[in-house]
Amino acid sequence: YRVPNLLTYMRCLAIPVFVGLFYLPAKYANAHLYTGSTFAIASATDWLDGYLARRWDIASPFGAFLDPVADKLMVSTSLILLAGRYGTIVAIPTLIILAREIAVSALREWMASRGERNVVKVGIQGKIKTALTMVALTILLFVPSAVQTTALLYKIGIPLLYLSALVTITSGSVYFMAAAPALM
């Protein structure tokens, strides 16, 4: 029972690490490599902990609670850091992604209070949204802060982030449509 939960704890502990790396002074030329690598490894543990819990049939209620919290903390922290670095171009998808996360979390909580949590359980679109967002953020975190908007990784990461925001909207709408009878 411990390995999947330990991986989730590690993901939580990685957050202050990549924040610290993100803000390393410019004299540390490879800080972006450390930041991107830390986020990429932490993102990979998201898949790994779920895989191990299912494979070993050791899913726990606490793990089911902590895993999405760790993901949301990691993703929201990265989005805020990158919005601070790049401004409006990242702030717009950040707003969309964070608003959806808050709305869907509130919807799940409300549906659970009604005994209907399974109506809004995580589906394939939510998993695609998470993976796409983590890939986009990883790419953007690998962009050297001195180069910024001229970097190839930036030119790949920004469209991926906007695609992630689009998938975020569509996946969120799936949950709200599923809950519509209870909402009406």
TrEMBL record:
It is found in: Membrane. PROSITE patterns: CDP_ALCOHOL_P_TRANSF (PS00379). One of its GO terms (biological process) is glycerophospholipid biosynthetic process. The keyword Membrane applies. It is a multi-pass membrane protein. Its main location: membrane. GO terms for cellular component: membrane. The chain crosses the membrane at residues 6-24, 73-98, 131-154, 160-183. NCBIfam families: pgsA. Belongs to the CDP-alcohol phosphatidyltransferase class-I family. This is CDP-alcohol phosphatidyltransferase. It comes from Fragilariopsis cylindrus CCMP1102.
